[in-house]
Design brief:
10 strands, 218 residues, alpha/beta, 21% helix, globular, 8-stranded mixed sheet
Length: 218
């Protein structure tokens, strides 16, 4: 399976608490819910397409508990996100949750100090996509281990100014190629992007030079 990461992100890279004031107030974050004013009709259409590709979903504990509380209440049969999360295979990374604590449809708890290797083994199973949603700390761990194949983002035209960011200082350098892009419907200007990794551990390097009076690269 490929490992794909799915994130709502602001113009300044914040991914914390997009869907509600109390969604993730950790670290004193008081700017939660910043996505909601921009979630006009059509803005989040790509999300259903994302979940429709999932063979399994992998979550960090905090995101798992938040999603379980919300999505377990959604019983609309045509809601692809709810159907995938409520009935599909899920994995949650936690050293504190027991199997009983994590009860939510088909859920398996991954625990221990070898989470990277456990996820690597999951990727070796047959299937299409192992999807991570939210789960910033887990995403960073998997990125730094070179396990993320694809990022799917919806970037909203808002500067939050504080909060947890998708990438902060110290992330392993990587290069991605944009394979899909669209301005979401609804008029707020949100942009949906799919980025596939082409290099890990480096960004490459070069410089702009002038040769014979012409711009060039070296």
């Amino acid at each position: 399976m490929e490992l794909s990461v799915h994130t709502f992100v602001s113009l300044d890279g914040v991914m914390q608490g997009p869907g509600g004031v109390q969604e993730d107030p950790s670290g004193g974050f008081d700017r939660g819910g910043w996505l909601v004013p921009h979630s006009t009709e059509g803005q989040l259409d790509p999300v259903g397409e994302w979940f429709g590709r999932a063979d399994a979903v992998l979550l960090g504990r905090t995101t798992f508990e938040m999603m379980r509380t919300y999505w377990s209440q959604v019983t609309e049969p045509d809601n692809v996100v709810a159907t995938t999360l409520n009935t599909g295979q899920k994995y949650v990374v936690s050293n504190t949750l027991t199997d009983a604590d994590a009860a939510w449809g088909k859920t398996t708890v991954l625990r221990g100090d070898d989470i990277v290797e456990q996820v690597r083994r999951l990727k070796e199973q047959p299937g299409g996509e192992l999807q991570v949603h939210g789960s910033r700390q887990l995403v960073r761990t998997l990125h730094d281990a070179g396990l993320v194949d694809v990022h799917r983002l919806i970037q909203f035209p808002v500067v939050v100014g504080a909060g947890k960011r998708l990438f902060d200082d110290g992330a392993v350098p990587s290069v991605y190629r944009i394979t899909e892009s669209q301005v979401a419907a609804g008029g707020s200007g949100a942009v949906a992007l799919t980025l596939r990794r082409t290099a890990w551990g480096t960004t490459g390097a070069g410089e702009f030079v002038v040769r014979d009076g012409r711009e060039a690269t070296a």
